Structures are given as structure tokens and as C-alpha cells.
């Protein structure tokens, strides 16, 4: 029995000895942080036909290769010591160059990266739209062989077509394109693009696709875009939040319900009228100079910190408007190209240092009942007649020369100290108190049809004409002694000279 067990032990040891000598190398016991790695080259270039090359790897530690793309693969993915790895690159069937990489790791602390690039496959291109093919051959067939090659297409930087094109399939052949204009010949015709793919034109700077039939426009790959005209389409959503270089945007006459604008952008001109926008945020556009957003269901609009803004127009349905810190704004009016904004209830203007005039009178009966204009030092003219104003604040408007707030619902009006004021029209209100003290430049004062009881114009040394009839409670008018004023008032009113 003992002999039998002894024989089994000998056989077992012999088997282990064979496994140990099976030809596998003995790996040195090196700490991971002492691993080293070197490669023969970090960059390889292949033609469009593909091929093979050799990458030599030397390391004192076990290494692994991670390949990013299937078109370029190693002959082995792991090893140890000095090994020549074969690089196997497949043929490139595309018309664009391509690039990939391998990451080689020797443990956790030692790695290197190898980059592989491959040129595009040249050849002659065909376009499904016959008219487009004719245009391209006429303008870009440099060798006049009757074909447009991939090489010729790659040199094209601008395409401006106008005609009855059904599609622009093949724009991916023009990777260097900077300008694209593709408006139909007849704006109201049955022709017009229903889709437009510019995802391969990442250098595009200017796009004009007006008067087509586009329902969507994906510009997520065109982050260098500076000028966009996509008016008169059927677009419902336009996302430009990442387009920091955008300077001009005309997207009017669409069906846009959501418009995403970039923050701190270069945007100067924005025309988005005649859409379905319920809100609009332009406060992150400090370079904005021109804004047209009429014919939208916007009810509340805030325009803040747009110091370059010089011209803007609003929707008719607007109910609340707040404008502040817009030093470039010179004029503001409720009259726009699409009519008069008559639904506005709140108007607040603050710190618009170049604002010269505000015209918010209403041909129809307006709804404005709160008007605040503060710290606009060169404002000269303010019209807000025929509204429902109960609260009027004009503090800090020291250059005001003409104020027309007639036919509102004011009960008090204080313009004391406004030494530049020359004309004041406040008739047709509910005024019980009117303070014009210190208005030394005032020449014309119309305050009839109110509820005044007394009126003191003694410090209005330049006053020439005073109209104050239809104040049934008016008893006394105070004026400066010897002052020659043309006064139109009821006979029972006592005029006292001071």
C-alpha cells in the first residue's frame, strides 16, 4: 500500500514539473509603480487603400492595447517585453479623412497613446438633384472633365444657389464649406427644400435657407455659425445655445415655439417676429443692437443689460415690459410695423442713459396703468396719453422738456424742480394736486378737465399759456406779480399775484 502511494506522489510531482516547464516566460516581480513603456512611433499615416505597419513596444511590465475603432486593429492586444505589433488598417470607403487612436497601458501608472490617420478615397461624385449637379459642375469642375471629384469638392468654401431644387443631398462632400445660400427661385412656388443636412459642414459660418419648407433645422455641429437667415419656413424649434459666434439671426415667419439663444454671445441682430414664442430671453446678449419680436404671444418681456440695443419692436399682446441698463436705446415707441401695442399694462424703464423719447400714446384706448421711467438723464419727451395710468414715476429724468400724460387716471402729479420742462399736457385726468413749483422753463400748461382746487404757477417764470377750465372745484390761481400769462379759466376763479 505504501509503495502505491509513493508512486502516485512521484507521478504528481512529474506532472507539476512539466507544467512549470511548459514554455511560458518567468515574469519578473516588478512593482507596478516601476513599470516602464516605450514605443517606436506615436503617429501613423495610411492611404485610403489601408495596409499594414509595425509598432514596436518595449516594457518591463505586462501591457495591454485598447483600440478605439474597428478599422484599425493590432495583431495582439497584450504582451510583455520587446514585441513588434502589426497594425492592420482597412480601406477607407468614405470621402473624408479619419483618425483613431490606441491607448497602451503598462499597469496603472504608465501609459502612452498612438494616433492613426487615414486619407479619404478620391473619385467622382454624383448628386441626386440634377439641377444641383449642373450648378456644381458649372462652378467647381476645375479640370473640366465633366465630373466633380472628391478633391474638387473639398476645396469648395461657398455655395450660393437659387432655383427649383428638390434636395441638397451630398453636402457632406464639402467639409470646408463656409457659406451656403439655398433660397428657391420662386418664393411661393411648390418647390423648396423639406430637409437640409449640414451636419458635416462644421466650418459653416453663413447659412441662408429662407423661403423653403423646412420643418426642422439641426445646427448642433455648426458651432462657428455667425449669420443665419432661416425666415419663412415651418421650423418649430431652434436651438442655438452653444453658438457663441452668432452675430445675426433672422428666423421670422416660422412656427417657432422655443428659441434657445447663446449666453454672452456676439449676437447683434435678432428678428423673430411672426412665430409662436410665448417667452423670449435676450438678457444674455450684451451686443444686441436690433430686436424685432412682434406677432408673438409674448405677454412679459424683460430686456436688461443690452447696452448696444438701439432699436426694438414688440408684440401687440405684450402686457408687461421692463427695460433697464440699456445705454444704447434712444427712442421707444408702441408703434411698430404690425400696429400699435395697446395691451401693455406695466412699463418700467430704468437707467437708459441715452434715451431721448418715449411715445406710448394710444390711438385706441390703451391699457397702461403703471409707468415708471427712472434715471434717464437725457430723456426730453414723454407721451403716454389715452391710457389708464394711475401711477407715473419720472424721477431722475432731469432733461424732460415735454410731458403729455393727458386722458389717464392720475390723481396727483409732481413735476417740481424739472427746470427743463417746457410743455405739460395733463388734462383729462382726476388730478386733485398738481405741483409745478420750480419749473422755470415751463411755457405751456394744459391742465383742464381735472379736479384741482388750487393751482400755483408763481415760480413758473416763463409760463405763457395756461388752460385750466373744467376744474369745477378750482377756486384760486397763484401767479408771479406782473407776469403776463394767457389764462383760460372760469370767470369765478380768483387770480392772486405773489
TrEMBL record:
All residue ranges annotated as the EF-hand domain in the record: 128-163
Annotated InterPro entries: BACON (IPR024361), CDIRP (IPR052574), EF_hand_dom (IPR002048), Ig-like_fold (IPR013783), Leu-rich_rpt_4 (IPR025875), LRR_dom_sf (IPR032675)
GO MF entries: calcium ion binding; signaling adaptor activity
Alphabetically ordered keywords of this record: Leucine-rich repeat, Repeat
Gene3D superfamilies on file: Immunoglobulins (2.60.40.10), Ribonuclease Inhibitor (3.80.10.10)
Taxonomy, superkingdom: Bacteria
Keyword Repeat: yes
PANTHER family from the UniProt entry: PROTEIN NUD1 (PTHR47566:SF1), PTHR47566
Listed name of the protein: EF-hand domain-containing protein
UniProt source species: Butyricimonas faecalis
Amino acid at each position: 500500500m505504501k509503495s502505491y502511494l509513493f508512486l502516485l506522489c512521484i507521478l504528481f510531482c512529474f506532472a507539476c514539473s512539466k507544467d512549470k516547464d511548459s514554455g511560458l516566460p518567468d515574469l519578473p516581480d516588478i512593482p507596478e509603480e516601476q513599470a516602464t513603456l516605450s514605443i517606436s512611433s506615436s503617429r501613423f499615416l495610411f492611404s485610403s487603400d489601408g495596409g499594414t505597419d509595425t509598432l514596436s513596444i518595449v516594457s518591463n511590465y505586462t501591457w495591454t492595447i485598447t483600440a478605439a475603432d474597428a478599422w484599425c486593429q493590432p495583431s495582439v492586444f497584450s504582451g510583455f517585453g520587446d514585441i513588434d505589433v502589426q497594425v492592420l488598417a482597412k480601406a477607407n470607403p468614405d470621402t473624408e479623412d479619419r483618425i483613431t487612436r490606441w491607448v497602451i497601458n503598462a499597469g496603472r501608472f504608465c501609459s502612452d497613446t498612438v494616433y492613426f490617420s487615414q486619407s479619404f478615397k478620391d473619385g467622382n461624385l454624383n448628386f441626386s438633384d440634377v439641377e444641383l449637379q449642373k450648378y456644381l459642375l458649372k462652378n467647381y469642375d476645375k479640370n473640366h472633365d465633366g465630373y466633380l471629384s472628391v478633391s474638387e469638392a473639398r476645396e469648395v468654401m461657398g455655395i450660393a444657389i437659387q432655383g427649383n431644387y428638390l434636395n441638397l443631398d451630398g453636402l457632406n462632400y464639402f467639409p470646408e464649406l463656409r457659406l451656403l445660400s439655398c433660397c428657391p427661385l420662386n418664393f411661393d412656388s411648390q418647390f423648396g427644400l423639406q430637409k437640409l443636412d449640414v451636419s458635416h459642414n462644421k466650418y459653416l459660418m453663413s447659412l441662408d435657407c429662407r423661403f423653403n419648407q423646412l420643418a426642422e433645422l439641426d445646427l448642433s455641429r455648426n458651432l462657428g455659425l455667425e449669420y443665419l437667415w432661416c425666415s419663412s419656413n415651418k421650423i418649430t424649434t431652434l436651438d442655438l445655445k452653444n453658438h457663441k459666434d452668432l452675430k445675426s439671426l433672422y428666423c421670422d415667419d416660422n412656427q417657432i415655439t422655443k428659441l434657445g439663444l447663446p449666453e454672452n454671445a456676439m449676437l447683434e441682430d435678432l428678428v423673430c417676429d411672426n412665430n409662436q414664442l410665448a417667452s423670449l430671453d435676450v438678457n444674455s446678449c450684451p451686443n444686441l443692437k436690433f430686436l424685432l419680436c412682434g406677432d408673438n404671444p409674448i405677454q412679459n418681456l424683460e430686456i436688461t443689460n443690452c447696452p448696444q440695443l438701439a432699436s426694438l419692436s414688440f408684440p401687440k399682446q405684450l402686457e408687461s415690459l421692463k427695460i433697464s441698463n440699456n445705454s444704447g436705446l434712444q427712442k421707444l415707441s408702441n408703434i411698430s410695423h404690425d400696429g400699435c401695442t395697446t395691451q401693455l399694462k406695466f412699463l418700467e424703464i430704468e437707467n437708459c442713459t441715452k434715451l431721448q423719447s418715449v411715445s406710448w400714446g394710444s390711438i385706441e384706448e390703451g391699457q397702461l396703468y403703471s409707468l415708471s421711467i427712472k434715471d434717464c438723464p437725457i430723456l426730453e419727451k414723454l407721451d403716454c396719453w389715452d391710457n389708464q395710468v394711475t401711477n407715473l414715476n419720472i424721477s431722475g429724468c432731469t432733461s424732460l422738456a415735454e410731458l403729455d400724460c393727458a386722458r389717464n387716471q392720475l390723481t396727483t402729479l409732481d413735476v417740481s424742480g424739472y427746470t427743463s420742462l417746457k410743455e405739460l399736457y395733463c388734462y383729462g385726468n382726476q388730478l386733485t394736486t398738481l405741483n409745478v413749483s420750480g419749473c422755470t422753463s415751463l411755457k405751456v400748461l394744459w391742465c383742464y378737465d381735472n379736479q384741482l382746487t388750487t393751482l400755483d404757477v408763481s415760480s413758473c417764470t416763463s409760463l405763457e399759456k395756461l388752460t385750466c377750465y373744467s376744474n369745477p372745484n378750482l377756486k384760486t390761481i397763484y401767479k408771479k406779480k406782473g407776469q403776463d400769462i394767457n389764462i383760460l379759466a372760469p370767470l369765478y376763479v380768483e387770480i392772486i399775484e405773489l
